[in-house]
Design goal:
The chain is α/β, with parallel strands linked by helices. The protein has 2 domains: 164 residues, Rossmann fold (3-Layer(aba) Sandwich), CATH 3.40.50; 173 residues, 3-Layer(aba) Sandwich (Rossmann fold), CATH 3.40.50. Helices cover 39% and strands 19% of the residues. It is built from 13 helices and 14 strands. The strands form 2 sheets. It has an 8-stranded mixed sheet, with helices on one face. α6 links the parallel β7 and β8. The chain is globular, with a radius of gyration of 21 Å. 43% of the residues are buried. The mean pLDDT is 94.
């Protein structure tokens, strides 16, 4: 097949969860003999990585892209040219595959929503969970969809973590870029409370974003972390192999993000046999190997509205995990077993059969 992925951001010009998904699926498809192209609004030049052709997409070439490729896969209805693509597939009588990734744009913009609903018969929908907002939207509108989870690469996460033992000091890992609502402030606050009962060190891994708001937030968070009563180390723009080692060198993975769809970082923690803890966001309840923390309330955009009680509960759950070595060992084992079922090679076969 001749396949094109369309997205606002693509690897290596930006590195985050969505870009990781596109990179892995596209490279697996290329390895399976397909001609695969990834077009990103933020791509600055043409490249070939892992057998995948990477190029820029914009208003000037989007029509040619849609006409030229047999299969079109769009990652998120927030794709900048999404409305134009929907109109094109209607004119050209073509089908596309869409990852709604929360259906954020359609839920906010009635123009996008109405265009999508009018052409829903030409769209194959893929959700990462059966109960998230995008799936609920599709069910409400009697639109069928396929649930396909995100995955990991066992070629990357192929080491077995050592048996968990009681320690005097614990290392906590968070992997999340510094975008608003990714929960870094809450992370710092939770760790402050945890540290009152158990000495910890916090390692935060992220990339420097091109978005100025993200850069400014990163500086603010780095300044705040320097005043914490525990050690905080920032690891910025790590090579992939070095980042993976972080999963093996820490004791707990912590995600305090206030809204997610299907966080790849949680899957990666499970794959590294690293016990994880997270707010109840996205599809984390369906992932083995960790603890899901309840919250008090959400705002109208679906983000958790963290309060002091939420921080205390999250810290209590973390301390209880730390104090129960048998539980941590069980979570470690469960995560590794679960990760075996979501290797990207197997996940990609499901994509190929659906599109």
């Amino acid at each position: 097949m001749n396949i094109a992925f369309l997205s606002n951001h693509v690897f290596p010009f930006h590195v985050g969860g969505s870009e990781t998904v596109i990179k892995n699926v596209s490279e697996c498809m290329a390895a399976n003999g397909h001609n695969v192209y990834v077009y990103g609004c933020d791509a600055t030049d043409d490249r070939i990585i892992g057998g995948v052709n990477i190029s820029k997409c914009n208003q000037n070439n989007i029509v040619d892209i849609i006409k030229r490729h047999e299969k079109i896969i769009i990652y998120s209805d927030s794709f900048l040219l999404f409305n134009q693509v929907i109109k094109l597939i209607s004119l050209l009588n073509k089908n596309i595959t869409l990852f709604p990734v929360g259906m954020n744009a359609s839920l906010k913009d009635s123009n996008i929503r109405n265009n999508l609903l009018r052409n829903a018969d030409k769209v194959n929908f893929i959700c990462h969970d059966n109960f998230y907002e995008d799936a609920i939207f599709l069910k409400t509108n009697n639109i069928s969809f396929k649930v396909i989870p995100n995955g990991i690469s066992r070629n990357e996460f192929n080491k077995r973590k050592k048996s968990i033992v009681k320690k005097d000091e614990y290392n906590i890992l968070c992997v999340a870029n510094t975008f608003p609502k990714k929960g870094h402030k809450e992370l710092l606050d939770v760790c402050k409370v945890v540290n009152e009962k158990c000495k910890i060190n916090l390692n935060i891994c992220c990339h420097e974003t091109k978005w100025q708001i993200g850069r400014n937030l990163q500086k603010i968070l780095q300044n705040q972390s320097s005043h914490m009563p525990y050690n905080v180390k920032w690891h910025i723009n790590l090579d992939r192999s070095v980042l993976i080692e972080q999963f093996y060198n820490n004791d707990i993975f912590m995600l305090c993000s206030l809204k997610e769809v299907a966080p790849v970082c949680i899957l990666e923690a499970a794959a590294a046999s690293l016990p994880w803890i997270s707010f109840d966001v996205g599809n984390v309840k369906s992932i083995e190997g960790g603890i899901v923390v309840p919250y008090v309330s959400k705002d109208i955009t679906g983000h958790i509205s963290p309060c002091e009680k939420d921080i205390e509960i999250f810290a209590d759950y973390t301390n209880n995990m730390i104090n129960d070595i048998a539980l941590m060992q069980k979570l470690s084992d469960m995560g590794s077993i679960y990760a075996d079922t979501v290797d990207w090679k197997n996940i990609t076969k499901i994509y190929e059969s659906y599109i």
